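Example 4.3 (complexes with small molecules)
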Amino acid sequence: MAGLAAKQLHVLRRRDFVVGDALIDGRWIAAAERDAVIDPATGEEIAEVARCSAADMERAIGAAAQSFASWRELLPASRGLILRSWASLMREHAEELAILITSEQGKPLAEARYEVVYGAGFLDWFAAEAERAYGETIPSHKPASLLQVRMQPIGVAAAITPWNFPVAMITRKAGAALAAGCPIIVKPAPETPLSALALARLAEEAGVPRGVLQVVVGNSIELSAPLLRDTRVRALSFTGSTQVGHLLLEGAATTVKKVSLELGGHAPFLIFDDVDIGKAVTGAMAAKFATSGQDCLAANRIYVQRGIYGAFVDALAAAMAELKVGHGLEPTTDIGPMTKASVAEKCRAHIADAVTKGARIFSTGNGEGLGPNFVVPTLLSDVTDDMLIAREETFGPVAAVLPFDTEREVLARANASEMGLAAYVYTDSLRRALRLSESIEYGMVGINTASFTGPPIPFGGWKQSGLGREGSRHGIQEYMELKYVCFGDLAA
Ligand code: NAD
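Answer. The structure with nicotinamide-adenine-dinucleotide bound is encoded below.
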């Protein structure tokens, strides 16, 4: 495992694909101070990147503000052409991008390849949405008047992005902002700067003009402060923990920015005893173990109706026993390392807490001893509502299964959370599916499926899982202002 990422990156370096400098005002900035990028599987340093200062961020804000007028004046179709060209370059360089993602984030290469295609899809989607940002005409309530609503770009936007989808969370935000006519400054997660910087290089190649897309890397607190206090930054989009979401929302209040937040999940996965157990296990495996469990859509509470409870637990354990744990660049790997040591520690704390409080544990033993960031895929059954894992998002390959008796009971337990991102329901009863899809308090609901994301859908959560929506026809609105215009005195 040692040296695996370094060997692959050596090839990419020769192709100029490992970029260590930040992109500010059309120039690549080395910065006096540098930060190490670490392969989370081995702990090895694989690259160095610029550590930008608050002054660098202020320069980026100035450059973005300067670029706004000419970018918004481009015809939407012309902005769309540039976005499409950026998407094509991503697909052309999918393998290089995927290697970068896996090397710094840890996910299996096949999932990284998927992320590149998924991420490019947002650019194509918003390229088309640029031309559909319609306003409206309102039947007038005033004589001799014409009432119009126009959608206009809000101004400079900022994106603070997470490490679990280091490419797609950038294109989902930047695609929408650029399509709307807004320049955007991206502050990627310090753990995963290489994929962000490679994306910026491709954006430059695609013709995104100077100052319109900038990537500023470095310390999150230092770099977010100028973004929050500067009145020229009119929109802020963040994906990450609810805790940091609170801080950013508070910080953005002083300048009343338009804020969109995609925060933590804690998805309930409801399985009723009328379903095919095999299909439910396949769904639960996908919803639990994608991105090695580091996914805001991850099934954190798998509720199984008593009639099939034992059989389901046995079948899930058998499926989990097959999971291969290893370096993401090894082709057989299903589960990579956790990107951050703190995530692995949280998983272990959830396991310990559940076992102390009486949960049954099935440890697959897979990946044992590989290193501190690896978490052995673990099944906890007979989980009760007082256990930490039933109350907080785990963000790792630990499956918690909880028995339930009635629909009314499980609905109340599923909704008894401050999180409201995604929920899953497996049932063969159409009436039950319709009832639950209406009464479950989550922003996204998968009925008999664990796969529902993509550019056309409004991604986002209720309650403390966030504000606003990304993707879909709604996503572009996060970067637009509505303007009402009344033309009066029109009588001849
Ligand atoms: P985090 O919220 O600390 O980090 C997410 C991003 O926020 C980082 O990449 C960083 O760029 C930025 N950030 C961190 N502190 C900041 C600050 N004070 N000001 C401005 N920006 C800041 O999350 P984490 O500790 O890396 O991960 C812990 C938990 O966060 C996970 O267990 C999970 O619950 C959640 N998370 C969710 C998502 C998601 O997709 N919704 C993604 C990553 C993490």
